[in-house]
Amino acid sequence: MKGLMTDTPLLITGLMTHGIRAFPDQEIVTNLVEGGRHRYTFADAGKRIAQAAHMLTKLGVREGDRVGVMGWNTHRQFELYYAISCIGAVCHTINPRLGPENAAYVMTHAGDSVVLFDNTFAPLIGALAPHLKTVQKYVAMTDKANAPSGVPADTYIYEELMAGQPETFDWPELDENTACGMCYTSGTTGQPKGVLYSHRAMVLHALVTSLPTSFGSDSTDCLLPVVPMFHVNAWGVPYSTFLMGTKLVLPGPGMDGKSIHDLIIEEDVTYSLGVPTVWLGLLQYVSEIKGNFGKMKYTLVGGAALSETLIRGFDAHGVGVRQGWGMTEMSPTGTVNNETPEEMAKPLEERIPIQLRQGKPVPFIDLRLVSEDGDLVDHDGVASGHLQVRGPWVLSDYYNFDGQTLTDDGWFDTGDVSVIHEDGRMQITDRSKDVIKSGGEWISTIDIENTALLHPDVVQAAVIGVEHPRWLERPLLIVQLAPGKATNPEDIRQFVCGKMEKISWPDAVEIVDEIPLGATGKVLKTALREKFKGYVLPELRDTSKKNTDMKTGTEGENAPRKKGFSFFGLGRKK
Ligand code: ADP
């Protein structure tokens, strides 16, 4: 028997209507690309969203059209998120850090007909424009006084187009499965692939992530997304903001420690979201200036593994840390790690191992672990497996993609390797392409990196596998030191060895000026693998020693301990 409820579609338009109606006086504050700080209310934003919808319609944008947006977190991009989607078009957020070739590829692959961009990216757009065959119109997201040069001659100016447009719009009632947005994966493992979001998925994701048990805040909070709106919808914050009625603070182009810290203090930020590299930079800045975090209560860390250093760093300032895990293909939220009141009452030392877990799945998301052979793996906190997911905001297929996206039984393989603890919390041990296979054991690069970050002189750490004739692969730890430090690599190695099981001891430590970061602010291991291609571990440089070791089977100082000796890792008990 079917229920007798009205079949009202779940549309982003509904989120917007609610925000404006319930919290008209709440504020949205932006650090402008042109300099200075802009502020207006949800009610003002609603009027501007309607104006933007008229602007887009006059530019010729119709239902189903893809509209490219390359911009920082600003009120203008916020307006476009709603205006584009609510007229039935697709808001394609473009990551400017993809590099020119990939940026041109994604705009062409998506078939963007109009592209709006911030002034920062004018040189990039100017250079790419001759190659962007699908793009008919460009709009610089600024005012006349700040019109950029070097862009196509007929580039429009956002504020000029907005001026005088009506402040209401007759929004269409779309099917809830209509596409509303689009984001491409960062392409670290091949060409970027397009993920096409729907209204229904975004509304459900916003509802679930607004729960107190996810990263929910309320109208007394002030939210600062340091995660960019050009990648995975800034974790859905532009949508959940209207739902939760929180004050929204948008950092514009200022993603450095000082700019973020100024905003936190001056705008009374209570809750912030970002990737670990951003928080490491901020903590470093705050310690340099001997500052504090003002009213900040919580930070949500995701996109890469949370480290003990970050937990301790924030704890020292009385700021709580929650970890979230997800990916572009999951809109992005899959798990959030919340502590129970009992856990929160425990001393920090006991809480850290809990906080290092990526958390329990949020409502409607299912997780499972699968072994190399395709068998299901126990959720016992010991056995690891390929992490697969399903749920209403997990993609079913990539956009215009020739290939299989889901498993035959409808799950998405995340490319992550993890365990699931008996308490239901999932813990990532690695990405399947990063894990190090050494003498029949699987070594977690995340564990070694997090241990290295505990060294007071280390600000960034990355581990890659390098060839070893006997163990197949061994870990090479690459670190970036804090400014002015000249620590000996061997001291860092000894420090890490003193805290880990022998199997995970890095065989060598190399110091670099800067660990490369990718398009989403995460460590770019592909670049490090390229840089250290053919790297010979110190113990192998002396070939006579190596030959003796190989012949006699004597374990050298750095050789791994063989535990249990089970080939090859996944699904086995550690
Ligand atoms: P890409 O960086 O390839 O574009 P995403 O931005 O979608 O991809 O990132 C997804 C990946 O980021 C996940 O599959 C996982 O490997 C990693 N990731 C995200 N959150 C966490 C976390 N909290 N801990 C560890 N890894 C994470």
Could you explain the architecture of this structure?
Helix content is 28%, strand content 22%. The C terminus is likely disordered. It is built from 18 helices and 25 strands. The protein is α/β, with parallel strands linked by helices and 574 residues long. Among the domains are: 175 residues, ANL, N-terminal domain (Rossmann fold), CATH 3.40.50; 119 residues, ANL, C-terminal domain (GMP Synthetase, Chain A, domain 3). The strands form 5 sheets. Strands 2-1-11-10-12-13-14-15-16 form a 9-stranded mixed β-sheet. A 7-stranded mixed β-sheet has the order 7-6-5-3-4-8-9. It starts with 11 loop residues before the first helix and ends in a 22-residue tail after the last helix. Bound molecules: adenosine-5'-diphosphate.
* Helix fraction by DSSP (H/I, runs of at least 4): 25-40%
CATH topology of the domain at 11-28 and 42-198: Rossmann fold
Kindly report the average pLDDT value. Answer: 91
Please tell me how large the radius of gyration is: 25 Å
* SS content category: alpha/beta
Q: Span from first to last CA?
A: 49 Å
Text of the CATH class of the domain at 11-28 and 42-198: Alpha Beta
Return residue spans where pLDDT drops below 50 for at least 5 consecutive residues. 546-574
Please list the strands of the largest sheet in the order they lie side by side.
2-1-11-10-12-13-14-15-16
**How would a crystallographer describe the biggest sheet?**
9 strands, mixed
Total number of helical segments? Answer: 18
Brief digest:
This protein is an alpha/beta fold and 574 residues long. It contains 18 helices and 25 strands. A nine-stranded mixed beta sheet has the order 2-1-11-10-12-13-14-15-16. It has a seven-stranded mixed beta sheet with strand order 7-6-5-3-4-8-9. A four-stranded antiparallel beta sheet has the order 17-18-19-20.
